[in-house]
Amino acid sequence: MSETELVRLKPRRIRVVCWSAAVALVVVFGLVATSLSGPTGDGYGSFQRGDQVAMIGLGIFGALGFLLFTRPRVEADARGIRVRNVISSYELPWEVVRGVRFDRGAPWASLELHDDDLLPMVALQAADKELAVEGVRALRRLHQAHQAHLAERAERAVDH
Hints:
Blueprint lengths: L6 E3 L3 H23 L2 E2 L6 E2 L1 H19 L5 E4 L3 E5 L4 E5 L3 E5 L6 E6 L4 E8 L4 H30 L1
Antiparallel strand pairs: 1-4, 2-3, 4-5, 5-6, 7-8, 8-9
Helix pairs in contact: 1-2
InterPro entries: CFP-6_PH (IPR019692)
Protein name: PH (Pleckstrin Homology) domain-containing protein
Keywords: Membrane, Transmembrane, Transmembrane helix
């Protein structure tokens, strides 16, 4: 395992779905905004330009909410792993990681830490099938290479 190998992973399917939904939401709210004109019915109110702008703004905020789900990423190298989920981010050295798990039926992979915590990696989703499996394998190779490096250093320390 090379010292400079860098593994970068991000979900595919959820990104396509979220971008499509975000565009559709802006288009729908834009169409609704253009149809808002004139009186509101039997009452005295009427739709103004500000109401149209507000509808477009709501569509944009909704689209940005969808795009939050495109945020997850995982980066790993010989030193450690960086996990960015929808809201939270973590940077961990390999020393605190016990293993990389992708349990049957789980929606995404997770890191098993030495303190018995499980850290979800939303970027490695079961929906991405083979892409996620290859990502987990790459992370496991990096983790095993780090474990082998630690064992080698400990062996050299004992020999001296």
